[in-house]
Amino acid sequence: MTHHIRTATTDDAGPLADLAAVTFPLACPPQSRPEDIAAHLANTLSADNFRAYLADPDVTVLVIDADGELRGYSLLVDRAVQDPDVAAALTLLPSVELSKCYVHPDHHGLGAAAELMQTSVAAAAATGAAGLWLGVNSQNARAIRFYEKSGFRRVGTKSFQLGTTVEHDFVMERPVVP
Hints:
alpha+beta, Aminopeptidase, 7-stranded mixed sheet, 33% strand
């Protein structure tokens, strides 16, 4: 099954926020507090946040569009790394961050995530980057397996603030050309 993947527009901001509200909690460790997840959704993944991302020239948002319904999205950030732990870990420079990569749970196992990843890697390559990097929660075994199958390898760790809790992420990277 081929999925229609396109660059998001400002009209997608609301549907992206709705999709994020379904997909982000699935990536959180089991002990995550619901209020911390809710705070992250409100502060980072609201429709207003997506409008700001879509207006930012350093950000690319790709969506899986199934006849007008968004089934997944990725968000790439093409700017210098600010986190010193990440900067120290990366070996492929310049590098683009794969900040978000989520597929609706109803579409897991259907190849949608792999297609979205391929399109995201191509988008990073188009910027002239040598590498693509991401942070993934150290307890998210399913995502880590997917990223490893997608050519990423673990190169370091970083902290991630989820509401009032500090989570620990693996930093993973891959070259954008095989």
